[in-house]
Amino acid sequence: MTTTTLAVLVPLLPFLGAVAGLLLGRVAPGFVRPLAILPTLAAAAFAIAVAVRQGGGDGKAPLDAATQLTPTGSVPIDLALYIDGFAALVAVLVGVVASCVQIYSTGYLRGDARYPSYAALVSLFTSAMLLVVYSGDLMVLLVGWEIMGICSYFLVGHYWETPEARAASLKAFLVTKLGDVPFLIGLFALASDAGTFRITGVLKTVADGGLDHPTLIALLLLAGVAGKSAQFPLHTWLPDAMAGPTPVSALIHAATMVAAGIYFVARLLPVFAASAAALVVLAAMAAITMVGSALAALAQDDIKRVLAYSTIGQLGYMSGALAVGDRGAAVFHLIAHGAFKALLFLGAGVIIHAAGTNSLAAMSRMRGLSQRIPDAYWTVTVALLALAAIPPFAGFFSKESVLVAAEHTALGESGGAAPGAAGWTVLIAGLLTALLTAAYAARLWLLTFRGRGSEVPDYGKQPLSMNAVLWVLAIPSIGLGLAIGSLPGWFDGHSLAPNLTTSVLGTGIALAGGLITYGCWRHTSALAARNPIGAVVPHPDTEPALAEREAIEIHTQVYGSIAGAPDPADPARLLLGPLHRHAAAGFHLDAVYHRLFVRPVLAAAQLVRFLDREVIDTYVRGAGTGTGWLGAAVRRAQTGNVQTYLSALLAGSVVLAIAAVLVAAGA
Known about the structure:
The chain has helices at 3-24, 32-54, 85-108, 115-134, 138-156, 163-194, 199-207, 214-228, 237-240, 246-254, 258-267, 269-273, 276-299, 303-323, 327-355, 360-363, 369-372, 374-387, 394-410, 420-449, 464-479, 487-490, 500-524, 526-530, 544-559, 571-576, 579-584, 589-637, 642-666; strands spanning 63-70, 77-83, 366-367, 454-455. By secondary structure, the protein is an all-alpha fold. The strands form two sheets. Strands 1-2 form a two-stranded antiparallel sheet.
């Protein structure tokens, strides 16, 4: 089988699995799980085969194949593949994580009546992301981009009975669409300047200096990237999207949706590098995103919201690497982050089921959770160490590659187009975020696994399908850093190895953040026994998905907020001081957007409604009423009496004759 055929099958198989699952979900429910798992596993295997054939630094040219999709009369649209080392490795990540999610979901949603549609949507989601990764034409890429948006709407709203899920799905859809409007305009502007939608043609035009409006195009495209990859100021949808099932959160955060925007910029980095202003904007966006999301993560009580803000911050690192012109570091961190973040979310699903709550405040008052779920305990510990960038875990090497790239740009050693200001911005923000990341990772681990209080209730053992994938994902979380020497051959050839300065500085800052948090926890943990707090837990026989759904509903009822909890024993309150209240609310950006955008839109809608009902409808009703009155008047003359009609005809004739005589006499 040729490499091109294998590459075509990679996105096609999950798509066919999704279609078959939707068609057979009710007719033959026994086929739903095989149709969810087997096509995705096969796609992952084929993606690995494509990667083995295409990458590795042996000088092989990227796979570039195309056929015209449809004649347009102007800029053609091609069904094209363009697979280089970046695309090959990202496709492997998507396939592996999606396979783990599908396997995990068979246990997590084992009793869910809507599992057939859920599994089909996950397969379609996977297919759309793989289409984005492999596509060599921007219009075809846009198809996958938009399919992911609608899939996220349905999957985040899976528990549509709850108001949190309904609001979160609508918010995710609208915020990402807000970014997609300028993104679409930017794509058309780019194709207009380049004369093609083909990625190879666009890159050739950029290399020849043929872009007439590089800054405008780059900024328009960045708006779409900010929405899709949850970067400031369009990041607010991602924490609320935690109202969806945990496996969906793992897929969105690790391998699809939010990864798409970062991958798009990496794919078209020369377009953005053609404008120094765009790179500075990207660096500023990354810096604000990194620091702000890390502070917010430190103040959250919902374990999944901590991880959601963590994802936003790690995406900020990737954006920062792109802002300094190193897409190899960005994609390396994308892949490493995909492994340990999928592990963290799937582990969080096990934790929520075992504890019966998603609240860290409640977990901090439970003893023995680590003994109850040893698989999740050890694997989540590994993933948190990778997240905190502690050597020798994967996150250390990938995050250091970003810091090294920022350092080289700041010192003018990169030789690229990125300005030094972008380098300093990313470097300083990256080091500060490393401190905060270690702090919230340590807080999550301490509150979850070192709780003090009554013994955690026994809610039964988690299914093997849930625990097994945790260990699968733990392998790259531990060992991906060992590939540091071979990855440059897959990318641009630039070294990704850490240097002594950033390694010592970054690791020291991370250790300091963890130790400071531990000290605060030791100081505040004694308050936990004197301040009982917690949520009502579901029935011991509740399946994992239902336990999560009930936990989401109960959290707001018990604590008054989906995000925070009034817990005096939380070490984050001591760490953040008066900033804690604002960080827990995401620095009130939702309230700001509500005042700046939602209220004016609602007021405009009310005005339009008034004009429609009281003005336009008045004219419409008036026209109808006038016609009715005229008809009533005319109807009175229709008596049915022939003599009356003849008399009226004679009278009219006489009037006309008199009028004619008068006119003739006057003439």
